[in-house]
Amino acid sequence: MLAAGLAAGAALGSRPARAAEPPPLPGPGAPFDREALVAHARERARGPYVAPRTDDLPAAARELGRDAYAAIRTAPGRAVWEGEDPGWTLEPLPRGSIFTHPVQLFLVEGGQVRPLPYDRSRFQAEGLALPDLAPEAGHSGLRLRARIAGGDPAEIGVFQGASFFRLCAPGQALGVTARSLTLRPADARGEEFPLFRALYAERPEAGGPLVLHALVESESAVAALSFRIAPEARATICDVEAAIFARQPLDHVGLGGCQASYLFGPLDRRSVDDARSAVHATDGLAIANGSGEQIWRPVHNPDALQISAFVDANPRGFGLMQRARAFRDYEDDVQHWESRPSLWLEPQGDWGQGSVVLLEIPSDSEANENVLAYWRPKETLPKDGALRVAYRQHWGWDRPAPPPLARVAASRGGRGSAGSRRLFLVDFAGEALAGAGGLDLALSAAPGTITRQQLLPDPGAETPGTRARVAFELDPGSERASELRLQLRRGDRPVSETWLYRWTP
């Protein structure tokens, strides 16, 4: 349930902090539950922001390159709960490279807090001298592994970097990144990146989910989040509860933020000299809006920043999806983009008015996560205000229980028949196409002109009538952008999801 209101009253059991010092974290031996962390976040938000120290990290650690840092491993037998049988292992991650700010790690066992101090012997890195930091120096985050169906522990997730985290289904590689809290992305005032300050991992029961709690902080806000992580055969389910407290008025908050890389694909290969067929960790934004419309918005790599807002009330779900699942879709023997997860988010309760926002940022590197989607509430959260929100994430091969509509299977674009015209090919697939009666095209461009359009059967369909292609040409004239909209219908009834795309030259 999403609710906003003024935070009032003193934090339970805490004294006011000194002006330049935040209240201490729930520490060794302290009783712990979610509401204790929420109370701490509320109290912390009443004081000024104090940035985490990074000057204790040696220059050699700060200057580690990406590959050198990635070569650091957990020493055999040193993962938390290794050799025990809760079905999970937890690996603290060292500070270094771009991960310089400290995150305090704690275990919660029997309802009490136990710190997890830094210990150099927990890590190994051939040819690299790891820093000998103080025990309270902290870590940069943690990695989670889970044992699925009695197998060896497999990587399920990483919480590391600002307030970012990544999960995946069994058999997948990490891909799309979620954000615990998003503040002012692509805003003229500059984006603010909240940081993990502490992570509390509850010891799981054998075969049960893992519950992780996080304290997140920035100049403008403090948040307490809880993550209940449960791997299943085809997806990892993560239930998120967040309590956000505003130090300053928050007029641009992003909830349920998710980001991923998109370099090129069949819809836009401009200036691409690459042997691979496509390079991306997501190929589109899916939305189930509050009125029930199912939307598919292919993403692309633009020449200039593109911001799209899909105005809505009480959305049913949205997420960055990876629909191209065959190796031949990418021809990448190293990255295997076909195995990257989709991330579908379902709000719990009513989220009110706002918009799903999509940012597409120009990029020349597949390492850049240049596509970002999030929910932006319409209302400003006032100074000293509080916001509670809950949602469920599905990290896996597809969204759960997709609607019985034909889906966009592929989108392609290229030079048209003459002048500045552009040719688009949009393929739909699904049993809904095989129903009785002919199909109608609901196709529009604003601005611009559709000069021709054609509905074609797909001769490669395994089941006759379950695939179709729409070919059309756009004449943009002198316009520099055009919003395209396409849906297959039978009379006044939709047969397919709605394909939306913003063309730019």
List keywords for this structure.
single chain; 505 residues; mainly beta; Beta-galactosidase, Chain A, domain 5; Immunoglobulin-like; 16-stranded mixed beta sheet; ten-stranded antiparallel beta sheet; globular; disordered N terminus
Number of discrete helical segments: 3
How many structural domains are formed by the residues?
Answer: 3
Overall geometric form: globular
Structural class: mainly beta
End-to-end separation: 42 Å
Round the mean pLDDT to the nearest integer and report it: 92
Stated plainly, the CATH topology of the largest domain is called Beta-galactosidase, Chain A, domain 5
Strand portion:
35-45%
CATH class of the largest domain: Mainly Beta
Main sheet characteristics: 16 strands, mixed
Radius of gyration: 24 Å
Number of strands: 34
Organism: Methylobacterium hispanicum
InterPro entries: Gal_mutarotase_sf_dom, GH-type_carb-bd, Glucan_biosyn_MdoG/MdoD, Glucan_biosyn_MdoG_C, Ig-like_fold, Ig_E-set
Region (Disordered): 12-32
Pfam family, one: MdoG
